[in-house]
Design goal:
With 163 residues, the chain is an alpha+beta fold. The chain has 8 helices and 7 strands, in the order αβαβαβββαββαααα. The protein has a single domain, classed as Beta Polymerase, domain 2 (2-Layer Sandwich). Strand 6 (98-102) and strand 7 (105-109) form a beta hairpin. The model has no long low-confidence stretch (mean pLDDT 94).
Length: 163
């Protein structure tokens, strides 16, 4: 994964994407016990708006010998899914991501409060399970979480999660 992260960092450095952060199951493992996950989810803010924000990324990765398989790009043996920010919660999550390292490689990771809120918003069974694990195991900023839940209309789902 460290080799894949070096390439993702290069996409930001070269201006192909504005900002990125790791989300999904891999991001959750920075805060909770590891969970089974298939790919590395990279949420990103595109350089320009439009319908085809993935093409510049795919073109650049193809130059580096990576290959696309449907919505996944194989980067140095790691399945990576690039997900453009699709609403205000996800955009804010990427903008406020925290710096971390993985095997001496810089990586931006979504904060656990945002991971939990996005999981509640997505609301698939695996996301609800991840949200419950984050609630149980991660060190959460309760004020930030309360603000996110209220401002994104997720308080009711959160209450259901707690019961």
């Amino acid at each position: 994964m460290d080799k894949a992260l070096r390439i993702v960092n290069g996409l930001q450095k070269s201006g192909v994407i504005k900002a990125y952060a790791i989300g999904g199951g891999i991001a959750a493992t920075f805060y909770i016990e590891p969970v089974l996950t298939y790919d590395l989810d990279i949420f990103f803010i595109p350089v320009s708006e439009g319908l085809d924000v993935l093409s510049p990324i795919y073109r650049e990765l193809k130059k580096k010998g990576c290959r696309a398989e449907k919505e996944i790009v194989m980067i140095k043996g790691v399945a990576v899914q690039f997900i453009p920010v699709y609403n205000e919660l996800v955009k804010e999550a990427v903008e406020t991501a925290v710096e971390s390292t993985y095997k001496k490689v810089r990586a931006r990771i979504l904060k656990p409060e945002y991971l939990l809120a996005i999981a509640l918003q997505t609301n698939r069974p695996k996301d609800r399970e991840r949200a419950a694990l984050l609630l149980e195991q991660a060190k959460l900023d309760s004020r930030l979480l309360a603000t996110l839940l209220k401002s994104h209309g997720l308080s009711e789902r959160f209450q259901k999660l707690k019961t």
